[in-house]
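Q: Could you write out the predicted structure for this multi-component system? I'm mainly interested in how the pieces pack against one another.
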Amino acid sequence: MRQDLVLEQMSEDDDRSQPSDLRSSSSSINKTRNCSGSISASGSSTSASSSSSASSIPLSIPVTEYQSPYPDQVLENVLENVLCFLTSRHDRNAASLVCKSWWRAEALTRSELFIGNCYAVSPVRAMGRFSRVRAVVLKGKPRFADFNLMPPDWGAHFTPWVSSMTRAYPWLEKVCLKRMSVSDNDLALLAKSFLGFKELMLVCCDGFGTSGLSFIASKCRQLRVLDLIESEVSDDEVDWISSFPEGESCLESLIFDCVECAINFEALEKLVARSPSLKKLRLNRYVSIVQLYRLMIRAPQLTHLGTGSFSPSEVMAQGDSEPDYVFAFATCKSLVCLSGFREITPDYLPAIYPVCANLTSLNFSYANITAEQLKPCHKKLPQTSNLLGLQAVAATCKELRELRVFPVEAQEDIEGPVSEVGLQAISEGCRKLQSILYFCQRMTNAAVIAMSENCPDLEVFRLCIMGRHRPDHVTGEPMDEGFGAIVRNCKKLTRLAVSGLLTDRAFSYIGKYGKLVRTLSVAFAGDSDMGLKYVLQGCPRLQKLEIRDSPFGDAALHSGLHHYYNMRFLWMSSCRLTPQGCQQIARAMPNLVVELIRYGSLENQEKLDDVETLYMYRSLEGPRDDVPEFVTILRADG
Amino acid sequence: MAVVGLINMENMAGEKEKLGFEATELRLGLPGNGGTIEVEGGRKRGFSETVDLKLNLSSKESSDSDPNEKLNSLQKKDKNLLSSATDPAKPPAKAQVVGWPPVRSYRKNMLAVQKSRQEESEMGSGNNSTTSSAAFVKVSMDGAPYLRKVDLKMYNTYQELYDALGKMFGNCGSQGMKDFMNESKLMDLLNGSDYVPTYEDKDGDWMLVGDVPWRMFVESCKRLRIMKGTEAIGLAPRAMEKCKNRS
């Protein structure tokens, strides 16, 4: 977004001269200077000394100790109070561009700091500008790192951020990290440094273990939220659940379904019993259904529940009577979100029937169950016996906003079910669909076109035809028309992932119609440089572009020079780029960090002309200093 | 009411259709393991480890006709298009590709573990056929600061296990463990301060190691604890009885 770019330019340039409207009248310059003095009572007088207005103050103005507030100062105070209500960072970015005093007021009132790429700005710079932040959201690695396309230890370390935060934000309350490397030491530092710390969310992170969790649990006395989502947590054999202090806890959310080690159940049960505010609890697969029962009885106020294994543990004496699971679910009257079912024994599924009517979210993506078993969960199910699961969903979940369909066996070349039927059914039944992620083996243009016509509210359309380069299996045509219809008909589309056999024509459609697209994922698609050119020249809102195994080369890369500062990142792996082509980009755009990532060892340089992976992103800091040996950063002067 | 649904698609197929769809049974695994899963806690994704996603395919053959296609009204115009062998646009190499399909390895591993667990339970408990999954149990020793883990399937006899434990925990009564099988030394041992290996079995009972045949032990052992001899006295009567029965 252009606004984001300007935002960063502003923070880079502290000596920026006054906007011309202020400079024109001398009296307003004085007011500005005085106002800046009064606002920066907290000590962060970033602009006062470096403002160029200082040099143009007329000497005749007397400097007295007390100065009655100028009208504009009052205005600034009012502004601060008003800006407190702006929560969206996009709105705040816009407000900060109005003039210098708005910039300052906004900087002092921003309480949540969002950094979309941890390498785009340094901790010192970010914290220098925003001094009163209570919550930090940090994102690190690009998404393709999830699929092993990036060697481990690439970077995105939390350490420099947490150490800066201990100095800058003693009152920090919330940290949310995505795809960052977090160490146990980082967690220990965090736990001990922020007395009022309340919320920790680690999404797709790694590098830490149960000992790190133990620090958080034991030292963060005000902890309300501890959410571990799809993170890798190593088993240090530390009983972190027991680390929560005795006495009533203010825990509201405890999510640990990704933790792949056993936990101390007795301690968990006691913790749940003394957490009256607990609303979200997502258990890992080491919690059996019997244990789940005991927890549910103690926490009937739960709104979000991850059920753990949902099967009995192996240790069950003969003749033990089974708890009344239906009763347990019935007592949890507030449940709206149900997930887990990690090792589901289908016999127990009926237990959830009492809550189905109220559910807004039901996640069976880890469960091995059949449509037959799922049927009674949907109230109004047509009674035909050979109904596909998706058709069942389509028939009953009229209000569905988001759907994700994962493959059990994530491999191509399996002749799976005819998937366009499911997509067609969904498009006809779930007209309000806004977001869909759909894995399939093959697809038809007709089904995709139908979805584009039936679901005009789509904002996220991610179709993954697992067979690479697969055409429409009915007509034999490329999938161009299907995706073309999506971008043409779904006017709110912001995120798109394409697959299957695609020619440059598909990309011309995206460039022509995808005016709101911010995130685009491309794999095994396109014919020539033109494909990428269409997108780079046609999509003004494009921020995140990730491409793999597509025939786009240096000329295509070059066609995006006008736009790369507006983007968060560009990823291109196994395309047709050369180091020379990438070097040209680096030379032309000094504020881009251009990383070339190699897979093999340094000696294995058979293909010196090929770039394996290009990852480039705008940054105020230049090349990072934690580069591993398999990454080369191309310098502007190289 | 806004509904968010996440469904595991392949398994949503009805029972009847299962044979047609899940034609090939797959186990997801890291290369070099022959398709087996070793899910230790916190196994890190190894970039270089996941290059080859070639999987074990079972002998079930894929059916030509997809039963589901007979149900729906879409007409296949050209059956040849279904066969990937004649698909002109498809690259000839069927080599698996890194990171494709884009499913997070975390999710793949979860589902794979589920599948292998299901298969194990389907094969029935007490079945001594060699499943290739490991049998990790925790080993604690009184007085030692750290827990260890051993894979019982790595050993074939009690002796091998004792040797391994001895190495693991140093020379703390490994001799005593070896004397263990000998009744006359047993009481000496238990009266002394040497260490005695015990285990928790499926029923939650703590037993002295060595009571049952090795295979049965591997199946039923949940965890190991190396106790001080004096503490293990309570377990002795059963052991004594067993020793008598054996001799």
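A: Regarding packing and overall arrangement: Chain A touches chain B through 92 residues (CB under 8 Å).
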